[in-house]
Specification:
CATH architecture: Orthogonal Bundle
Bound molecules: protoporphyrin IX containing FE
Radius of gyration: 22 Å
Oligomer: single chain
Structural class: alpha+beta
Mean pLDDT: 92
Number of strands: 11
Number of domains: 1
Strand order of the largest sheet: 1-2-3-9-6-4
Helix content: 40-55%
């Protein structure tokens, strides 16, 4: 049966706009808007989105759905094979640097690899891969990362003990301190202004080309980042980036200093790293909520950490819990591509510049997508089932997939393991204790209380912190 892309009728287009695209845009593609994520949870908007896409998929036999948005064509794919085709075809003929993303990300990372033209991507992608140790479960800076994670967990333990609870805001503030330290070093740890500037630029980015570039703010932010990158001590991602740049330059001396520019410019890539850690915090918090609601999961996470000891070990089960978090509740709401040449698709040709959209939350649970559905199944990431499943793309897939996946999973799994030791109870835990899990979970709304299991566990967290765990000043930058 032909699966040539079909044009949606006006009625179908309206359904897609209302239940698929509008909630994504409203929640904020670049930085989440708390009011809107709360609303999305109340409406379980990912469930509505899936219902519309399932209906259209059944009606059109899985053919890609062509939506007209003014003068623009956006194709929504509904079959896992088509997800693979689009993502494997990056950066050409399907570039990740589509119009909307370029306009959004130029606010704070105009030269990031994700929005780079093909020629620049060819040298920026290897720099990112090397600096972030893409493909290595343990980053070379793993010991320093674990030390900072333990420090963060101890801060959160202390905050929880003082107030008897842990809310998303407190978690986000501590997580940003962790992010700034791991990425830029101790010097940046308490630089709340850096995060505030980034947040303001991200908020402008939410409007894509509808918002003019905040040039002065961007210049101030980028200068701050550049200063930190130059000074960053060993054991930070910025220092790993500098080393990667030197190594790449040595391998290809002709590529350096072309037109007086450093062709392996780390500082231009770091804004993406900072921005993207936000998603790691969200994923960790949601995973923690499930861990707190399910004693058997918590016990397994804790047992693994105890066996692994304090060093930079891989924690496969905790890692799998984080992966389940981003499968069930993907932090990249939609993965966008744009064709760089005419696309021939089952007998129909779509012009250059056509947009392609993969709505991750749909595929991760859809009837046509992953068999894992609404269940919490970390085992699927341990036994190979998830790896073989082309419908699962929380970190995207193909040549332009997330270069930070491994360092994120390493960091988040260690933080999750240590926070599991706090013995927290999650509010509204009854929704997370059993399958099926809710389609949409507002991370801003998550809050925890110290449960009866806390005393033994608090000791464990603080011992692991090397005695440095004090709750830092409340940096109010965060998920806003
Ligand atoms: C839970 C956390 C994260 C998730 C779920 C995630 C997911 C993704 C996704 C889906 C993409 C593709 C975006 C697109 O095609 O539009 C991407 C790209 C990227 N991510 Fe992540 N990311 C996370 C955290 C990070 C972190 C912390 C870093 C760096 C430290 C990072 C580095 C990158 C880079 C460099 C790219 C661009 C790759 C390219 O264009 O070749 N990510 N990420």
């Amino acid at each position: 049966m032909s699966r040539a892309p079909v044009d949606l009728t006006p009625r179908e287009s309206l359904d897609v706009l209302r239940d698929v695209l509008a909630p994504l845009v409203a929640q904020g593609a670049i930085v989440r808007r708390p009011l809107m994520t709360g609303r999305a949870e109340r409406r379980q908007s990912d469930g509505r989105c899936a219902a519309v896409l399932d209906r259209l998929r059944d009606r059109h036999g899985g053919a890609p759905l062509v939506l007209r948005l003014g003068g623009r064509r956006v194709v929504l794919v509904t079959e896992p094979d088509d997800v693979a085709r689009v993502l494997d075809g990056s950066p050409e003929p399907f570039t990740p640097a589509n119009r909307e993303k370029r306009a959004a990300l130029r606010q704070f990372q105009p030269d990031g690899v994700l929005v780079s033209p093909a020629a620049e991507r060819r040298r920026r992608r290897p720099l990112n891969e090397r600096a972030l140790a893409n493909g290595s479960a343990v980053h070379p800076a793993g010991d320093a990362v674990v030390e900072q994670v333990a420090r963060t967990a101890a801060e959160l333990a202390q905050a929880a003990r003082t107030t008897g609870e842990l809310d998303a805001r407190t978690f986000a503030d501590a997580h940003w301190r962790l992010v700034r330290t791991v990425t830029l070093g101790e010097q940046a740890r308490d630089d709340e202004l850096l995060t505030k500037r980034l947040d303001a630029l991200r908020a402008a980015g939410n409007w894509s080309y509808l918002h003019p570039v905040r040039r002065r703010l961007r210049a101030a932010f980028l200068e701050q980042v550049r200063g930190y990158v130059e000074q960053a001590e060993a054991g930070t991602l910025a220092a790993a980036g500098r080393e990667a740049a030197e190594a790449l330059a040595a391998e290809d001396p002709d590529a350096s200093n072309l037109h007086g520019e450093d062709r392996h410019d780390v500082a231009s890539q770091v804004p993406h790293w900072l921005f993207a850690w936000d998603a790691a915090g969200i994923a960790t918090l949601r995973a923690l909520a499930v861990v707190a609601a399910r004693p058997e999961v918590r016990e397994r996470v804790l047992a693994e950490l105890t066996t692994a000891g304090r060093g930079a070990a891989v924690l496969p089960y905790a890692r799998a819990c984080v992966l389940e978090s981003v499968r069930l509740w993907p932090t990249t709401l939609v993965v966008l591509r744009e064709s760089t040449e005419p696309t021939r698709w089952d007998g129909r040709t779509l012009p250059t510049g056509t947009g392609f959209a993969v709505v991750s939350s749909y595929f991760h649970r859809a009837r046509s997508g992953s068999a894992l559905g609404d269940r919490f199944v970390p085992e699927a990431w341990l036994d190979g089932r998830a790896d073989d499943d082309r419908a699962l793309v929380p970190f995207s897939a193909g040549p332009a997939a997330c270069a930070g996946r491994d360092v994120v999973l390493f960091t988040a799994s260690h933080l999750l393991g240590r926070l599991a030791g706090l013995g927290l109870d999650v509010d509204r835990g009854e929704h997370l204790a059993h399958d099926p899990l809710p389609r949409t979970v507002d991370h801003f709304g998550l809050s925890f209380r110290l449960g009866g299991r806390a005393d033994r566990s608090l000791g464990t967290v603080e011992e692991a912190s090397d005695g440095r765990g004090t709750a830092g000043p409340g940096a109010r930058g965060g998920w806003t």
